[in-house]
Amino acid sequence: MSSSSPASAAPLLTTPLNALHLELGARMVPFAGYSMPVQYPAGLMAEHHHTRTAAGLFDVSHMGQLCLSGPDAAAAFETLIPVDVQGLDIGRQRYGLLLNDAGGIIDDLMFVNRGDDLFIIVNGACKVGDIAHIQERIGHLCQVQPLPDQALLALQGPQAAAALGRLAPEVLSLVFMTGTAASIAGCDCYVTRSGYTGEDGFEISVPAAQAETLARALLAQPEVQPIGLGARNSLRLEAGLCLYGNDIDTTTTPPEAALNWAIQKVRRTGGARAGGFPGADKVLAQIDDPALLARKRVGLVALERVPVREHTELQSPDGQRIGEVTSGLLGPTVDRPVAMGYVAPAFAALGTRVNAIVRGKAVPMEVAAMPFTPARYYRG
């Protein structure tokens, strides 16, 4: 999320659900160039808890959607991301990282093999640059088709399957990180069982012209309430998930960001498909020799009830600057201040004590495992 002076700011874009948000009493804020609902009248805390206990509906139509098609699409996409694309079965989804030539993260994304194409979802603030980058690098190898007329909704929470299954029973056969085409309330959807909250749930791509019909059908289910960006942020932080622009950006490599798990073995070691992505020499060297890392992303829990926000300096117990918080808040589910940030590798071990400097006062924190609350993805 970035800001600019009102004088220079372009008019905010709106999603296909803008009128519905206003009808529901949402407080709208600028986000990624769009007017987006930060919360509804129930408020952030109630929305967060409702998603953890029932089902929340999120408008994420600001995200970018595109597809790559053609016989060489998977091989071409592998030249841009350090991820196994060619080995992904039809109907399976994977997390990916778009890297620059220095191994820095241009964006993180999700993609699914739909058989006829690779369907990709990228972050809203990055989508124009991402699509241009992909077109420039591999547009001669496959067809790159942006999908600006698709909206995106996320239904998240332990009762999401019950609510969606009532409208489209076929989605109940999906497990985490799989997808299928489905007709929901007469709308032509592509559904993946995935999300950004740590809960079971679904992301639903739908034509913009059908988005309001779909949203109203979902909101008519007794389990479902509308949820804004505020709770989306607190949910994802408790789940230990990175926010692009805060926790990862073009200055961070996947190993610094503790995202080695996203780089499958076939892209790391030996064989014809190892390496071959932007920044591969640097990224693979950092994986092989962690001593090359200058910093590492960690989870942090405050030992006092003081919220520690982004950009807060982190110090060693003897007062040396060792890093910075990149996301932080009072976690509503865990009921204590949680954060993630970067520290010097010597301070990255679980249980290490560090101090966050909040308004000149040292707040003791401890390096902690993420997620802060257990993930509840449905794996069958």
From TrEMBL:
Chain segments annotated as transmembrane: none
Binding residues for substrate: E203
Highest taxon of source: Bacteria
A Pfam family: GCV_T
Matches recorded under Gene3D superfamilies: Aminomethyltransferase beta-barrel domains, Aminomethyltransferase fragment, Probable tRNA modification gtpase trme, domain 1
Methyltransferase keyword on record: yes
EC number: 2.1.2.10
Key words of the record: Aminotransferase, Methyltransferase, Transferase
Catalytic activity: N(6)-[(R)-S(8)-aminomethyldihydrolipoyl]-L-lysyl-[protein] + (6S)-5,6,7,8-tetrahydrofolate = N(6)-[(R)-dihydrolipoyl]-L-lysyl-[protein] + (6R)-5,10-methylene-5,6,7,8-tetrahydrofolate + NH4(+)
Domain Aminomethyltransferase C-terminal span(s) in chain numbering: 295-372
Any single GO CC term annotated in Swiss-Prot or TrEMBL for this entry: glycine cleavage complex
GO molecular function terms noted in the UniProt entry: aminomethyltransferase activity; methyltransferase activity; transaminase activity
One GO term (biological process): methylation
Annotated GCVT N-terminal domain residues: 19-265
Xref: PANTHER family: AMINOMETHYLTRANSFERASE, AMINOMETHYLTRANSFERASE, MITOCHONDRIAL
UniProt similarity note: Belongs to the GcvT family.
Protein name: aminomethyltransferase
Source species of the chain: Paracidovorax wautersii
